[in-house]
Amino acid sequence: METHTMIEKVKIKCPKCGEESDFDMYKRIDATPENGLRNRLLDNSLFTLYCSHCSCKINVEHSFLYNQLEDNYIVHCCVNDKDAQDVINLLTKPTEEQKPVVNSLAKNNTMIRLVRNRQMLIEKLCIYDMGMDDRVIEVYKHIVAGSYLRDHPEDKITKMLFDAVKPKGEEEYHKIIRIFVDDKNVAQSEIVPETYKKVFEDYVSGMPVMRADKNLIVNSAWAKSIIDLKNAAANPADA
């Protein structure tokens, strides 16, 4: 299995002592079962630097491409607007020089997503590992949010995350949606298979299959647009 992991040697200034340390910045991560890069992504070690002068722990945020080779699954993590727009332009308006690469991705039925931080990337990987459709999960979150806010109208949800946990002594994973208020996990809702199926049938079944879907960004805003579109179709304005 051929890999093209790209590492850029950079210097990072310590926020504590002001001195610079060398850092291997992974701009492209080609993860295989053998190289352990996926695990280093998940445990954050790929993005952690200990200052060589004062040992201060530094979390290094940067944009990168994650490629899970055995699954033809790519996630672009873009931490700023420019990097995100560059990826969108590459995949939707490629230059003549870029077209062979983009065509190759399409030919190989590569699934591609774009996220704006590592937490969202890790969530995408968890959804994929559980054999679930991230489009359904994003719509499902809105349903869970609506139910939570009816009981807690004073709260403001800051984020919602999919997670899968395997309780001690059990064989199966429990798939849940975690609800965060002021970035604190205040509640969780287990995904009900029947509801998941209904969300798929109501909102996603008319779309292309997941790998053929050209939506790069599947997030809360995307889900809201899908829900609004369905609601508009169900309740057309009077002529």
Give the strand order of the largest sheet, numbering strands 1, 2, ... along the chain.
1-2-5-6-7
The percentage of residues in β strands lies in: 25-35%
Question: How would you sum up the major sheet?
Answer: 5 strands, mixed
Number of helices: 7
CA-CA gap between termini: 59 Å
User: Percent range for helical residues?
Assistant: 25-40%
Query: Structural class, judged by helices and strands?
Result: alpha+beta
Mean pLDDT: 95
Order of helices and strands: EEHEEEEHHEHHEEEHH
Compute the number of strand runs: 10
pLDDT < 50 stretches = none
- Which radius of gyration do the C-alpha atoms yield? 20 Å
Q: Describe the global form.
A: globular
Number of domains: 2
Please write out the topology:
Layout: E1 6-13, E2 20-31, H1 37-42, E3 48-50, E4 57-59, E5 64-68, E6 73-77, H2 81-92, H3 99-107, E7 111-115, H4 118-129, H5 134-151, E8 157-165, E9 174-181, E10 184-190, H6 193-204, H7 220-234
Parallel strand pairs: 2-5, 6-7
Antiparallel strand pairs: 1-2, 3-4, 5-6, 8-9, 9-10
Helix pairs in contact: 5-6, 5-7
Short description:
The protein is α+β, with helices and mostly antiparallel strands.
Task: Summarize the structure in words.
With 239 residues, the chain is of the alpha+beta class. It has two domains: 6-128, no CATH class; 131-234, no CATH class. Helix content is 35%, strand content 27%. The protein contains seven helices and ten strands. It has helices at residues 37-42, 81-92, 99-107, 118-129, 134-151, 193-204, 220-234, and strands spanning 6-13, 20-31, 48-50, 57-59, 64-68, 73-77, 111-115, 157-165, 174-181, 184-190. The strands form three sheets. The protein has a five-stranded mixed sheet, with helices on one face. A three-stranded antiparallel sheet has the order 8-9-10. A hairpin with a 4-residue loop joins strand 5 (64-68) and strand 6. It is globular, with a radius of gyration of 20 Å. The relative contact order is 0.10.
